[in-house]
Specification:
about 75% helix, about 0% strand, mainly alpha, about 90 residues
Length: about 90
């Protein structure tokens, strides 16, 4: 007799957070990266309620935080560059 395994409702959210965390790192210097990082954090919180997939959710949360941090560092570098060099050099191009 075949017994169907019970479905884990948080597993899909945990996998989604992992995928979005990876995408947020790959696309860290774009607007898509920040959106993926935020969505990855949301799905990680939903997936952490799962007993069997909490490791995936934790990894997705860490990757999303790293992607978000990379995006914030890039913004600080760009703002610092324009404050240091000035906006006139942008017009000279």
């Amino acid at each position: 007799m075949y017994v169907q395994p019970q479905s884990d409702p948080g597993r899909g959210a945990a996998i989604a957070s992992l995928v979005l965390g990876i995408v947020s790192i790959v696309l860290a210097f774009s607007l898509v990266g920040i959106i993926c990082a935020i969505l990855g954090l949301v799905f990680a919180n939903q997936g952490s309620r799962s007993i069997t997939s909490s490791g995936l959710a934790k990894t997705g949360k860490i990757l999303s935080i790293v992607g978000l941090s990379m995006w914030l560092v890039a913004i600080v570098v760009v703002i610092g560059f324009f404050l240091l060099v000035g906006f006139g050099s942008l017009l000279a191009l």
